[in-house]
Specification:
By secondary structure, the protein is an all-alpha fold. The protein has two domains: 76 residues, no CATH class; 295 residues, Lysozyme. It is built from 17 helices and five strands. Strands 2-4-3 form a three-stranded antiparallel beta sheet. Strands 1-5 form a two-stranded parallel ribbon. Helix 8 packs across helix 11 and helix 11 crosses helix 16. The longest helix is centred in the N-terminal third of the chain and has 42 residues.
């Protein structure tokens, strides 16, 4: 028994095993690994390596594919904010600090810079403007049907507009002049809003994008870099509402403020250059803001409604319409402009009457045609 145990416990060489079996008449040959076996081992190694590379590749590319899919989804939804749920909760929060406070330091800087740009400020006569509109086939009937507006940007109102006795003709000329200016500003805001949503839906932003955001916080007077507030403030003004206010504030382009200062919306200022109202109290220090060109007045009007604390309810109502994917209805939104004038709710009724009587809502979904060399040569 001990012999057997010693046999199994002892390490035996192959040569010794071979001698033992040779004595018994057996022939033992050590078999070398075949080429097939070597190939099989190599194939297993290659397959294992390849599998590992595929797994690593999937984990590496998955975040890239996910990010790309998110961006494609953003474009396919007309740049609607994908984080809308959080925004909705903010709107519904009664105690929310959304859209409160304003840093007025830089709010009108781009308006002032716009004023400094070299522009043609030649005042065309009413007859010349009418002929220009005729030559370019620009008329309001076509706009109502096709929803396309000629990109004719006039710097000044014609002095003769107040001499046009036919009220309908005067209104039509005024609308034709103001309409492209309002749509142009809305288009600019729409492009910026589109860029804002694109930036917010990225996991990482470039230095250029961050700098752009910083600039927009300043332009819209947003404190604490609150993105929800920026989303509420950076938005369009209904075209019909803007035209109605311009018509009311200027008497369809005939007021002194409009003629002397291109002031279409009667905005007040306590600083800088302005026009003193004729009926103002002697102790009153406010003036009506004046501008070098009409487009600057439109830009200042948009910025005023989009930042001033008096119009916070207007912006909230507009945000709710956006949240419900509803059009910006001027008949709804004008209800929140009672603080724009001292007459309050009466002012709102007048605006709504102007919108209805002149079918201004027809222009709310109109778009501005791209400019062309041929058109510029006519102006």
């Amino acid at each position: 028994m001990n012999t057997i145990n010693n046999f199994f416990n002892k390490k035996i060489k192959f040569s010794e095993i071979k001698k033992i079996f040779n004595k018994k008449g057996f022939i033992i040959i050590r078999k070398k690994p075949s080429l097939y076996s070597k190939n099989l081992q190599m194939n297993v190694l290659l397959r294992t390596t390849l599998s590992c590379l595929i797994v690593i590749g999937i984990f590496f590319t998955l975040p890239i594919i996910t990010e790309y899919s998110k961006e494609r989804a953003l474009f396919s939804q007309d740049f609607e904010n994908n984080s809308k749920d959080n925004f909705t909760k903010t709107l519904e929060d009664q105690n929310s600090e959304l859209d409160t406070g304003i840093n007025e330091t830089y709010v009108f800087d781009d308006v002032l810079n716009f004023e400094d740009l070299p522009m043609d400020t030649v005042r065309l006569s009413a007859s010349t403007i009418e002929q220009l509109f005729k030559d370019t086939d620009y008329n309001l009937d076509d706009v109502r049907k096709k929803k396309l507006v000629k990109p004719i940007s006039l710097s000044l109102l014609p002095a003769e507009i107040k001499k046009i006795e036919n009220i309908s003709k005067r209104k039509e000329l005024f609308i034709q002049i103001i309409l492209p200016l309002v749509i142009k500003e809305n288009t600019s805001i729409k492009i910026e809003r589109k860029k804002l949503f694109s930036i917010l839906n990225k996991s990482k932003n470039s230095g250029k994008e961050k700098k752009w955001l910083e600039n927009k916080f300043k332009q819209y007077g947003v404190i604490n870099k609150d993105l929800s507030t920026l989303k509420v403030r950076m938005d369009e003004i209904p075209v019909s509402m803007a035209i109605a206010q311009a018509a009311k504030e200027t008497g369809w382009g005939t007021s002194r403020f409009a003629q002397e200062g291109n002031a279409l919306f009667g905005q007040w200022t306590w600083l800088g250059d302005g026009i003193k109202p004729a009926g103002a109290d002697n102790n009153s220090t406010h003036k009506v803001m004046k501008f070098k060109v009409l487009q600057a007045s439109v830009k200042a009007y948009h910025r005023n409604l989009n930042t001033h604390s008096s119009y916070r309810e207007f912006r909230s109502a507009r945000a709710e319409l956006r949240d419900r994917r509803k059009p910006l209805d001027s008949m709804i939104l004008t209800e929140y402009l009672d603080k724009y004038a001292e007459t309050g709710k009466e002012y709102v009724k007048i605006l709504q009457k102007i919108i209805r009587q002149n079918n201004l809502s027809d222009f709310d979904d109109a778009k501005l045609l791209p400019s062309s060399i041929e058109l510029q040569s006519l102006i």
